[in-house]
Design goal:
By secondary structure, the chain is of the alpha/beta class. The chain has one domain: 3-Layer(aba) Sandwich (Rossmann fold). The strands form 2 sheets. Strands 3-2-1-4-5-6-8 form a 7-stranded parallel beta sheet, sandwiched between helices. It has a two-stranded antiparallel sheet with strand order 7-9. Helix 4 links the parallel strand 4 and strand 5. Helix 3 runs parallel beside helix 4, helix 4 packs parallel to helix 5 and helix 8 crosses helix 9. The longest helix has about 35 residues. The relative contact order is 0.14. The mean pLDDT is about 95. The structure holds NADP nicotinamide-adenine-dinucleotide phosphate. The site of NADP nicotinamide-adenine-dinucleotide phosphate has 32 residues, from helix 1, strand 5 and helix 6. NADP nicotinamide-adenine-dinucleotide phosphate binds next to helix 1, strand 5 and helix 6.
Length: about 325
């Protein structure tokens, strides 16, 4: 994989008014990438723009809703008009809605797919004609560890992320040999404002499945993928490579933990009444990279990793013993 020089490249970043999108835009700008940033909240985008300009970067604000085809086309057109090119599409915009699957309003389920899955596809289809014409380009999708796993209370979000990851894998194969790359970042729980504006069916504020990392972790992975296109990046060990490994070899451990504690782990002792949040309309809360949920301290992450490794080891040992008993029984 050749390492690309990002200086002077043009990136269109969706979902840039908060969280991972905001932080990734800042980090890309530091590498000399010229930005076109989009989301629904124009004032938030202008704040990001001011920060980028102060640091000597370039940033065009092009607000829009990823569920509206005309907005998507207008944003891509504005980017190409302004810079004369577009090199990287960073798909980030997403929403989630907390609730038991059968109690979620149907509109929440379809809206989650409209933003998280069809939003990514709409932007990809809008930039692909430019990329094909030039014979180069990069579609960089911010995915989730839930693109490959499951969690209670987030069925529609998780399903949309699985779908988006499946779509990205197909796209990568279709684009082989065209000069257009597809990358994915499997983001762990990060302390963004997502949990301050996500709707919930409960009366307690939502929080990410711990451990929670700094949004910077995701932004660094985005920059790494931008430099070395065509990879699926897993930025962390504990809520990353270890979990993927466990899901493959000792899936019973994760299922037991998430089945018993998954719902409770996603609620804070903070009362809220937020049936719709920012799902259909943007809300003023939650601008910038960080939200009100703090990242998990490093020592707690270390302890959790040790505990998980011990549990996985125990489960593997148990499985080995079980297999030996089975062999004895059938002899
Ligand atoms: N936070 C986590 O723990 C976590 C974990 C794994 C993966 N991720 C992934 O990371 C990405 C960013 O999430 P985040 O945590 O940064 O969340 P966030 O802070 O809530 O950011 C979501 C962004 O999407 C935009 N957006 C939402 N609906 C939109 C719409 N209809 N049209 C245009 N923009 C829309 C929001 O801006 P406006 O409201 O201004 O439109 C906002 O900029 C997502 O793909 C998410 O799945 C996050």
């Amino acid at each position: 994989m050749a390492r690309e020089n990002l200086q002077g490249k043009v990136a269109l970043v969706t979902g840039a008014s908060s969280g991972v999108g905001w932080q990734s835009a800042l980090r890309l700008a530091e590498q000399g990438v010229r930005l076109c940033v989009t989301a629904r909240r124009v004032e938030a985008l202008e704040k990001l723009q001011a920060q980028v300009l102060r640091a000597g970067g370039e940033c065009l604000v092009a607000p829009g809703d990823v569920t509206v085809q005309a907005d998507v086309e207008r944003v891509v057109h504005a980017c190409v008009e302004h810079y004369g090119r577009i090199d990287i599409l960073v798909n980030v915009a997403a929403v989630q809605s907390y609730g038991f699957f059968d109690q979620l309003p149907w509109e929440h389920i379809t809206r989650t797919f409209e933003v998280n899955c069809f939003g990514y596809m709409r932007f990809a289809r809008a930039v692909l004609p430019y990329f094909r014409q030039r014979g180069s380009g990069h579609i960089l999708n911010v995915q989730s560890m839930l693109s490959k796993g499951g969690a209670p209370l987030l069925a529609s979000y998780t399903a949309s992320k699985h779908a988006t990851f499946g779509w990205a894998q197909c796209l990568e194969l279709e684009l082989r040999g065209t000069g257009i790359d597809v990358s994915n970042v499997l983001v762990p729980s990060v302390a963004t404002p997502m949990f301050d504006h996500a709707p919930t069916q409960f009366h307690l504020a939502p929080m990410p499945v711990p451990p929670t990392y700094e949004p910077e972790v995701a932004a660094r992975a985005v920059v790494k993928c931008a430099r070395r296109p065509g990879q699926t990046a897993v930025p962390v060990f504990l809520q990353g490579r270890l979990i993927l490994w466990m899901n493959q070899f000792v899936p019973q451990v994760g299922k037991w933990l998430m089945g018993h504690f998954g719902a409770r782990l996603q609620m804070r002792e903070k009362p809220v009444d937020r049936p719709e949040g920012s799902l259909f309309h943007p809300v003023p809360q939650g601008v910038g990279p960080r939200g009100s949920v703090p990242p998990t301290p490093r020592w707690k992450r270390f302890t959790a990793a040790a505990g998980l490794v011990a549990l996985a080891g125990g489960a593997l040992g148990g499985a080995a013993l079980g297999a030996r008993e089975l062999v004895r029984a059938v002899r």
